[in-house]
Amino acid sequence: MSASAIVMMIVSIVLLWGGLFAAVLHLRRHPEEHGSD
Questions:
Q1: Which bin fits 32, alpha (ψ -120 to 50), beta or left (φ > 0)?
Q2: In the prediction, which pLDDT does 36 show?
Q3: Which of 12, 23, 30, 34 is the 20 to 30 Å CA partner of 5?
């Protein structure tokens, strides 16, 4: 693989897992505030 392909792969992996981690942290700080139906 070329260097640019490796860089793009790393960037996409970091964005994916970073977003997942951010979502987990957000849910842990604010657990279902509006789910009192």
A1: left
A2: 55
A3: 23
